[in-house]
Prior knowledge:
The protein is about 40% helix and about 20% strand. It has nine helices and 15 strands. Strands 5-4-3-2-14-1-15 form a seven-stranded mixed β-sheet, covered by helices on one side. Strands 6-7-8-9-13-12 form a six-stranded mixed β-sheet. A two-stranded antiparallel ribbon has the order 10-11. A hairpin with a 2-residue loop joins strand 10 and strand 11 (about 360-365). The protein is elongated and about 85 Å long. It starts with a helix and ends with a strand.
Amino acid sequence: MKYQFALVWLVVVVVVLIDAFLLWRWKKSKGFKSPASRMFALSFFGLLPLTAIIGFIYTGLRMPQTDGAQIYRDFGWFLFFFLLVYLSKFLFSGFHGLQLVVNRLWPKREEKVHHYPRMSRRKFLSQVGIVMATAPFVSLLFGAFKGRYAFYTRHVTLSFPNLPAGFDGLRIAQISDLHIGSFGDRREPLKEAIALINAEQPDLLLFTGDLVNNFAAEVRGWESVFAPLKAPMGKYAILGNHDYGNYSRWPSESKKAANFRGITDGYRRLGFQLLRNKGLVLSRNGDRIGLAGVENWGTASFPQTGDEQLAARGLEALNFRILLSHDPDHWDHKIRPQGIFDLTLSGHTHGMQFGIEKGDFRWSPAQYVQKRWAGLYQEGKQFLYVNRGLGYHGLPARVGMPPEITIITLRRGPLGSVVKEA
């Protein structure tokens, strides 16, 4: 958990720097003239950052010790309100800082008299700063109250010359990263998502991990919601990094093991067959293909228990093979070089629940963390699809990165792909 505490202290430093700078600018602008302005300064630049710092330190210490999902939801909303304030503060202070640099590099000169209103450089930068500071405020509000439940269906058609004719037209629904504990008692959003999946009439449903945030208890009560989910060729799943219970300090290994058993049983109760370094043969119209799933494998501080070679045992004679692996880093490090699988499906990144995707332009902070962070990738004859996640974790919002249902249609033909937005 060292990275969690490093993040906490980074946030503390950023908060102190931002508020110290803004307080200094407030004083320079003679904002301490009235009692009301001094009270505002005390609250906005003193009590507010102190509350934020205490909140982050408390949750940083409390989360590893918790035995329930409520702390994750509480932290998510705390993070939401923090970002609501401090992203705006950050942008506003950035433009004020730019104003200082511009004034230092290009000192103000005596201007000619004009007979029409003229905006000063200082006022212009201040106005731009105010406008820019409102953008994250509005975006986060929309992302929290609309974006996190704005389920989005992407249709992907992939063609392979080695796909058996009996599987031509196979429709696969892929979902990922439910983090079901984040929904609390709200059942309606996922009922809507399941209705959207059923409306696509998939032959096969594949879930690429992270059912929970950390605890088996998160799955209780969801059985009836997932019962209507239909896929005549089966519903298969793999474990994600959050499904191992590694985000808490357990009083004993037996408690942790019991929690893990509860999570794997939760998959079963929701109707999914877990593939844990295991493969199986799918039959359709007299032909066969291989489907395999691995334990979690990642480059972060997670156990690398995924074994794609073990999962592929018994599938060697088949012409076409699909692999489920939660973390897309696995594809570049292990899967692609071996050339065993034609199509790999992953999740994990959530697209960082924030980004911009417009036509061919795509940007998200996720791209600075992982090479393959969302959508379709191709190298040679192999494809990887990274689902953006159906749920959310941490921040209870999605901005420009809506929760995704992926419908993949397999075709027999020349190697190629078509991605169609819903």
